[in-house]
Amino acid sequence: MSSTKRSGIAGFEDTLRDFWATRPVRPRTGGKLGGVSAAIGVRYGIDPILVRVAFVLGALYGGAGLVLYLLGWLLFPKEGDPVPGSTEPTREPTSPALAVVIVLLLIPGVFWLTSSPSIIGLALGLGLLYLVHHNYGDRSIAPTATRATPEAAPQPAAPVSANTWVYPGAASTATPSDDTPRQTPPAWDPLGAAPFAWDLPEPSEPDEPDQQRPTRRWISFVTLGLAAFAAALATALGSPLSTALAIALAVLGVGMVLGAFLRGGRGLIGAAIPVGGLAMLLTALPLGDLSGELGDDEIRPTSIQNVLPHYKRSAGSVQLDLRNLEIADGQELRTGANVGLGDILVHVPPNVDVTARCAAELGTVHCLGDSADGRSAHRSVVDQGDDGPGGGHIVLDLVVGTGDVEVIRD
Predict the structure, then answer these.
(1) Backbone φ and ψ of 336, nearest 5°
(2) pLDDT of 79-101, one tens digit each?
(3) In whole angstroms, what is the distance from residue 245 CA to residue 252 CA?
(4) Close Cβ partners of 113 (under 8 Å, ≥ 6 residues apart)
(5) What is the value of pTM for the model shown?
């Protein structure tokens, strides 16, 4: 093994040991839940709000952020009361009862980390914490007090005759027998011209005002532009809206993490909250294909030539009334509809054969008397009408993401 490789491994181990020895301490005030975000923010000089946003973003990707937060809650000590005679707070470990609860919560959390995004999120979180400590580990570390040595001990002041006059700000070097300090100059020096009278304390230098670093607003604008470009590119390449929003949210998260160190990017929080909320909504609600238009579409054709092969709406409704359709015996009409969020209603003539496939990822299906509801509600029906086979044939393919599908024979 080369010396360069050995030094790299040794540096990595030293960083890990230093992190464990000086790991963040959960404060008694300022924390929202367990104080993990506040502890990291105070330890490394980062805004705790950005740390909380990073945990939330990690939780959205397979639950890695939640597992990392629980690990920090378990392993980071909490701030305790100072010991008698000292102003420095103590570092107390997590209470046994709380540790048991956290371990029980971590057991199902570890089983969540089975997908590639969750494993990648966990690795990124641990790697980011390592880099933060490697580059900013010297922040918020109190300097060690210098112990007094015999050489540094103050020397006793030389006696000055029997004078007991004490000037403001000076210490008395002699005490009269009656323990009462003399408040008037000596008789031989009424004007205070004695040499010891001019031994005044040195004036302290004024503290320099803290220079505030300028806020870098360009971080917010650049990150927002990159997030919008990434989402538009993903949509143009055919990715669903939920995937495009997830990509935009990841770009916003990277911008907020970088802004935490460059003192900028706080405006990204206001953009990440609605984007994250919409992404979670799209993940919870199956909306199917959202590449169509918005609004309601009502179609009343009178001939087969007036019927389109397919109707699509991202959100809204499609109402297809085929009761006045002229279809001869032996003719076949194939059409369908797809709605991401909304409803589909189809009226068919009484004397035609109908083959219908009705599907709702989340909602209700009423397909010529056959019904289903809930998630993945699917029904396929073949209905030849009251007069039996004949009178033309209509084939329907109807799908909604979240909503209702209904086929009625009038």
Answers:
(1) -165, 175
(2) 887 777 776 778 888 888 888 88
(3) 10
(4) 62, 63, 64, 67, 119, 122
(5) 0.41
